[in-house]
Amino acid sequence: MSKRRWKRRILWLVLIVLAWLLIDWLIARWYHRGPALQVQAAPEQIERGRYLVAAADCAACHTAEGGAPFAGGVALASPFGTIHGTNITPDAETGIGRYSADEFFHTITRGEARDGHQLYPAMPYVSYKTIAREDSDAIYAYLMTRPAVKQPNLANGVGFPFNIRTGIHAWNWLFAGATAKPASQGQSAAWKRGEYLVETLGHCGECHSPRGWLGQVDRAAPLSGNDALGRFAAPALTPQALAARGWDRNGLREYLASGVAAHAVASDEMLKVVNLSTSRLNGNDLDAITTYLTGDQPPAPVAAPVLAAVVATPARDRYLALCAGCHGRDGAGVPHVAPGLLGNSSLRDGDAHNLIVAILDGLPEHDLPGLERMQEMPGFADQLDDAQVAELAQWLRTRYGGQTGAVTAKQVRGLREDAADRH
To answer: What whole-number distance in Å separates Cα of residue 142 and Cα of residue 52?
Structure first.
């Protein structure tokens, strides 16, 4: 190829890049056109919006720890890189202060910002696409009457080629139109309200359903669990999976309202959900959620295992040395300190993922709604090797969870290496 042809190609490439930068600049200029809107709304609509913002768990992604409410900055880990929650206060320059109610509804249901750029699907517009317009308008009214905070949005850490947002058009064409298959069976008014709260507003399937290799939610396997998003796995929430772990409607309702039930304490991301969302819902909506999760005809919960006679093993010795000080020699736990282990939901899970992570990493202090607290649990990654962690996890699952499946050193090693990769 001649030098002249090479120079021509390079010139065309430079022109394309310059044209792209010009278009991007023009879009940014257009985005800041228009007046900053001042929204007037009835107190009843604003109060309804406040409630719906909690039901939709907006603060979890849009309020950073120690930051101003809804000013953004929350880092959301994904397989494609870190995505930051944006500023949704009514600031005109850095927030949504120039959005109309129509533009806001379009954004949360179509995943397209006011300036036309595509949002990453970390914003759950695929779930929100079925939100009622009056609910969107109430959320908008509430957000637009909050204090405006001038806080620029943080740059995302999404690598090539996923940082090319125009490619999201193709992703939307492939996946955004998918309809969530119900995770349970029902026709009652409570079940239908629960379906809306779980599948649309609460967007529970975004975490608790498996995802494909392009990050799309598997709508054919709703709420059947996902271990690929965070350090802890999101367990299955199907009626059968819940019943297998001992859950009934009363236990679920108590857990969602307070973060504590007879055999579980909310941790990690679910602790945020309880604190910022479900604990703020009224009793009727909590009943509706538990009705949807278990179905109109819920399966009977499996009884907790019966403790067998204690047999001396190296794993039991490790339990007595490392765990019994808080959880008790018989696993009964201590109120406000450590949960009981007999019938514990995590120990009854068919997947040992979360138990292994808890043993390796430990757990931070739990600040739950009201006055309830659970103390910090230390991690034992430095004290136990992979085989010892596997033996302890299997002993706990067998004795207190009634699980017979083996826990292997390979499983532990994989989660230990995952922790190193995240740091």
So the answer is: 9
Residue keyed to tokens 């009634």: 402
d(CA 271, CA 265): 8
Under DSSP, the state recorded for 201 is I
* CA neighbor of 411 nearest in space, from 423, 401, 400, 397: 397
Coil/strand/helix, residue 132: coil
**DSSP code of residue 333:** -
**In this structure, are residues 264 and 319 in contact, taking their beta carbons and an 8 Å threshold?**
no
Is this prediction's pTM over 0.85?
Answer: yes
For 223, the 3-state DSSP assignment is coil
CB of 223 within 8 A of CB of 236?
yes
Q: pLDDT (tens digit, 9 = 90+) per residue, 257-299?
A: 999 998 899 999 999 999 999 999 999 999 999 999 999 999 9
pLDDT exceeds cutoff 60 at 17: no
Structure tokens at 208: 């608790």
Tokens of 272: 């945020």
Residue-level length of the chain = 423
β strands within 244-370, DSSP E: 260-261, 264-265, 366-367
For the segment 140-168, what is each residue's pLDDT rounded down to a tens digit? 999 999 999 999 988 888 777 767 777 88
